[in-house]
Amino acid sequence: MSTCNGTAALMAVDPSPGTGYWEAIGAGTFSNISMFNSNVSGLANGPNTLRWHQSYAGCSDYDDVVVTNNEVFVNAGLDQDLCSDNTTLIGNNPGTGTGFWTRTGGSGTVSLPSFYNSTATGLSKGVNIFTWTITEGSCSNSDEVIINNNEITDVNAGVDRSICGTTAALAALAPHTGETGVWSVAGGTATFTNSLLYNSDVNGLVQGDNRLVWTLSNGICSAPDTVVITNLSPTVALVSPDVEICSSVYTLVGNLPGAGETGLWTKEFGATATIVDATSNITTAFNIGAGSNTFRWTISNSVCSTYSDIVIDNNTISTDAGLDASLCSDTAVLSADNPAPGTGIWSIVNSAGTPGFDNFSIYNTVVRNLASGSNIFKWTATKGGCSAWDVVTISNDVPTPPDAGADQIVCDGT
Question: How many other C-beta atoms lie within 10 A of the C-beta of residue 292?
Fold first, then answer.
């Protein structure tokens, strides 16, 4: 007899009223060694001799049966975890038999179904099952292999774009459940607010192309995609530091524009001023008004611009020492401008005497001991690093005290 699976149902003659038992001359395991119709398993490939011993009334005998095991050995190969929608199947060589692949789960196409090492393409994501069947003679056997396609197919770092700055908000496709993502820099420079966040902000982008890579991973497979953020900003505009001046004229200094760029000075805040050449990075501004004045240097290309401001505080001041006066006294109250919040000081320019100020730092101080005639005083005011002065003339017109001479006694009337 023959079998295709290494097992057989034996069919010896019932020994009753005697007894019997089976013996394997080689391989074989009996389900019940004393049963004439026992099942046998574990048969080796090819002929297997099984002996049936029978006894009755002190006599015994045996007979052999040969069971030929034509079981076909089949192996579809090890299960595979892939990061692709195609693979090479690795079944065993059918030798003198024939083999055939069939898909029994998922999707995919076997290019050469009768080849044990055929390729399979078009695998769906997840589980795909293929069965390898070998037939030899009247026997066949099958084994299946599970192909897990873990490929990540929908990674998307977002749309390439151009900006006019160093900062952008990224817009990659968010990871699916079971996936994680991370940003990296492939070209240019960038700093991510959170490199694990699909819509992270990024800053520090240099001029030109910045290539940023969004990579998804599911623990087995990973897939990258690149977005290009082009920073079209022109040369960064620079100006000299803010300054305080004591004049209405100042030289504006900005950096040179790059190739294909232009520069322009504008007045952004303060009283009207005149810029000699607004397109030159170094130029003169005049008629700068008193107080705070903001000038802006802007560098532009055909798309973007940058600017920088300089604040010029014109602290130029004027002062008035008061009106000239003629008095009939050697004391006067001066009346210069109040310099607050600045300071002021009186000094003597010219006097025949030695006048004295009650407080030389008070704009309306009293001056005493004025000499007869003209007394010239100077009032100097200082504020915000700037100063101005003016003079006032105080004339003491008190006449010389009259003196008719000493009294005389005369005898002749003359």
Answer: 14
Q: Which two tokens stand for residue 62?
A: 């045996």
**pLDDT over threshold 90, residue 414:** no
Instruction: Give me 313's structure tokens.
Output: 């505080």
Q: Where are the beta strands (DSSP E) in 164-261?
A: 168-169, 180-187, 191-192, 201-203, 208-217, 222-231, 243-245, 250-253
CA distance 288 to 275: 10
DSSP codes joined into one string, 334-354? --PPP-TTSEEEEEEEE-SS-
HSE-CB of 371 using CA atoms within 13 angstroms: 14
Q: With H, G, I as helix, E, B as strand and everything else as coil, classify residue 63.
A: strand
Within a 13 Å sphere around the CA of 355, how many CA atoms are in the beta-carbon half?
34
Dist. CA 200–CA 348, nearest whole Å: 72
Tens-digit pLDDT profile for residues 145-177: 999 999 998 999 999 999 999 999 999 999 999
**Separation between Cα atoms, residue 187 and residue 227, nearest integer Å:** 10
Q: What is the pLDDT of residue 16?
A: 94
pLDDT, mean of residues 17-39: 95
The answer to whether residues 142 and 133 touch, using CB atoms and an 8 Å cutoff, is yes
Q: Can you give the pTM of this predicted structure? A: 0.62
What burial letters (b/e) apply to 298-317, b meaning 16+ CB within 10 Å? Answer: bbbbeebbbbbebbbbbbbb
Structural tokens at position 116? 């044990």
- In the predicted model, is pLDDT for residue 89 greater than 80? yes
Pairing of strands 305-314, 243-245: parallel
**Residue that has been written with the tokens 């007394």 in this structure:** 375
Kind plus residue range of the DSSP H or E element containing 255: none
Res 403 pLDDT > 80: no
Q: Do the Cβ atoms of 87 and 154 come closer than 8 Å? A: no
**Model confidence pLDDT, tens digit, residues 58-87:** 999 999 999 999 999 999 999 999 999 999
How much is the pLDDT for 271?
A: 82
Distance (Å, rounded) from C-alpha 224 to C-alpha 172?
11
- In sequence order, the 6+-apart residues with CB closer than 8 A to the CB of 173 are 154, 155, 156, 158, 198
Closest among 78, 86, 222 to 145, alpha carbons compared: 78
SS3 category, 266: strand
Whether the per-residue pLDDT at 314 is higher than 80: the answer is yes
| Residues 6 or more apart whose Cβ sits within 8 Å of residue 35 | none
**What CA–CA distance (Å, rounded) separates 96 from 135?**
9
Residue 254 DSSP class: B
